[in-house]
Amino acid sequence: MIDEGRTPIPVYIHDEPDTDWQPGAASAWREFSHHLLYHFPSTPLESMDKRFNAFPWKSSYRDELHRWQREKTGIRLVDAGIRELWTTGYMHNRARMIVASFLVKNLLIP
Protein backbone atom coordinates (compact mmCIF):
# COMPACT_ATOMS: atom_id res chain seq x y z
CA MET A 1 0.00 0.00 0.00
CA ILE A 2 1.26 3.48 -0.87
CA ASP A 3 0.90 6.23 1.74
CA GLU A 4 -0.34 9.66 0.72
CA GLY A 5 2.52 12.04 0.00
CA ARG A 6 5.09 9.36 -0.76
CA THR A 7 6.46 8.68 -4.19
CA PRO A 8 6.22 5.01 -5.10
CA ILE A 9 9.49 3.31 -5.94
CA PRO A 10 9.19 1.17 -9.05
CA VAL A 11 9.76 -2.50 -8.40
CA TYR A 12 11.15 -4.63 -11.20
CA ILE A 13 10.23 -8.25 -10.90
CA HIS A 14 12.52 -10.64 -12.68
CA ASP A 15 10.10 -13.39 -13.66
CA GLU A 16 12.47 -15.38 -15.84
CA PRO A 17 15.12 -16.94 -13.59
CA ASP A 18 16.98 -18.57 -16.48
CA THR A 19 17.97 -15.26 -18.08
CA ASP A 20 20.61 -12.92 -16.75
CA TRP A 21 20.08 -9.63 -18.51
CA GLN A 22 23.12 -7.44 -18.51
CA PRO A 23 23.10 -3.83 -19.72
CA GLY A 24 25.99 -4.33 -22.16
CA ALA A 25 24.68 -7.56 -23.67
CA ALA A 26 22.54 -5.93 -26.37
CA SER A 27 25.31 -3.62 -27.52
CA ALA A 28 27.78 -6.53 -27.50
CA TRP A 29 25.55 -8.50 -29.87
CA ARG A 30 25.13 -5.41 -32.06
CA GLU A 31 28.90 -4.93 -32.23
CA PHE A 32 29.39 -8.62 -32.98
CA SER A 33 26.90 -8.36 -35.86
CA HIS A 34 28.68 -5.27 -37.22
CA HIS A 35 31.98 -7.13 -36.99
CA LEU A 36 30.60 -10.07 -38.98
CA LEU A 37 29.11 -7.84 -41.66
CA TYR A 38 32.32 -5.84 -41.99
CA HIS A 39 34.64 -8.84 -42.27
CA PHE A 40 32.20 -11.15 -44.06
CA PRO A 41 30.02 -8.88 -46.24
CA SER A 42 28.35 -11.83 -47.98
CA THR A 43 26.85 -13.04 -44.66
CA PRO A 44 23.30 -11.79 -45.39
CA LEU A 45 23.24 -13.65 -48.71
CA GLU A 46 25.09 -16.89 -48.05
CA SER A 47 26.01 -19.08 -45.12
CA MET A 48 29.39 -18.82 -43.48
CA ASP A 49 29.32 -22.60 -43.20
CA LYS A 50 29.46 -23.81 -46.80
CA ARG A 51 27.73 -27.09 -45.86
CA PHE A 52 24.47 -25.13 -45.65
CA ASN A 53 24.68 -23.67 -49.15
CA ALA A 54 22.79 -26.70 -50.49
CA PHE A 55 20.12 -26.61 -47.77
CA PRO A 56 16.71 -27.57 -49.21
CA TRP A 57 14.86 -24.28 -48.61
CA LYS A 58 11.44 -24.02 -50.20
CA SER A 59 11.49 -21.99 -53.37
CA SER A 60 7.73 -21.46 -53.45
CA TYR A 61 6.34 -20.56 -50.05
CA ARG A 62 3.88 -17.74 -50.61
CA ASP A 63 0.87 -19.54 -49.10
CA GLU A 64 2.77 -20.85 -46.07
CA LEU A 65 4.23 -17.40 -45.38
CA HIS A 66 0.79 -15.79 -45.65
CA ARG A 67 -0.71 -18.30 -43.19
CA TRP A 68 2.21 -17.71 -40.80
CA GLN A 69 1.73 -13.93 -41.01
CA ARG A 70 -2.03 -14.21 -40.40
CA GLU A 71 -2.05 -16.60 -37.40
CA LYS A 72 -3.25 -19.55 -39.48
CA THR A 73 -0.48 -22.11 -38.91
CA GLY A 74 -2.59 -24.39 -36.75
CA ILE A 75 0.09 -24.32 -34.05
CA ARG A 76 -1.56 -22.44 -31.21
CA LEU A 77 1.64 -21.16 -29.61
CA VAL A 78 2.98 -19.83 -32.92
CA ASP A 79 -0.35 -18.22 -33.77
CA ALA A 80 -0.52 -16.64 -30.29
CA GLY A 81 2.91 -15.08 -30.77
CA ILE A 82 1.92 -13.57 -34.10
CA ARG A 83 -1.37 -12.38 -32.60
CA GLU A 84 0.54 -10.69 -29.78
CA LEU A 85 2.70 -8.89 -32.33
CA TRP A 86 -0.29 -7.75 -34.41
CA THR A 87 -2.20 -6.65 -31.30
CA THR A 88 0.48 -4.93 -29.23
CA GLY A 89 3.33 -4.30 -31.64
CA TYR A 90 5.52 -6.37 -29.32
CA MET A 91 6.41 -10.04 -29.05
CA HIS A 92 7.92 -11.64 -25.96
CA ASN A 93 11.44 -13.01 -26.42
CA ARG A 94 10.37 -16.65 -25.95
CA ALA A 95 7.47 -16.31 -28.36
CA ARG A 96 9.76 -14.58 -30.87
CA MET A 97 12.20 -17.48 -30.65
CA ILE A 98 9.44 -20.07 -31.20
CA VAL A 99 7.73 -18.15 -34.02
CA ALA A 100 10.99 -17.54 -35.88
CA SER A 101 12.15 -21.11 -35.38
CA PHE A 102 8.87 -22.44 -36.77
CA LEU A 103 9.20 -20.20 -39.84
CA VAL A 104 12.72 -21.31 -40.63
CA LYS A 105 12.98 -24.88 -39.33
CA ASN A 106 9.48 -26.20 -39.89
CA LEU A 107 8.26 -24.25 -42.90
CA LEU A 108 11.77 -24.10 -44.44
CA ILE A 109 11.30 -20.48 -45.46
CA PRO A 110 14.64 -18.67 -45.80
Descriptive notes:
This protein has 110 residues and is an all-alpha fold. The chain has a domain of 54 residues. The chain contains four helices and no strands. The termini are far apart. 7% of the residues are buried.
Can you tag this structure with a few keywords?
single chain; 110 residues; mainly alpha; 4 helices; 45% helix; 0% strand; flat
Briefly summarize what is shown:
This protein is mainly alpha-helical. The chain has four helices and no strands.
Beta fraction: under 5%
Gross geometry: flat
Helix/strand/pairing category:
mainly alpha
Q: Estimate the mean pLDDT confidence.
A: 83
Integer-rounded radius of gyration: 20 Å
Query: N-to-C SSE series?
Result: HHHH
Topology, number of strands: 0
> What are the low-pLDDT stretches, counting only 5+ consecutive residues below 50?
9-14
Number of helices: 4
Distance between the termini: 52 Å
Question: What's the helix and strand layout?
Answer:
Elements: H1 25-39, H2 62-69, H3 76-88, H4 93-106
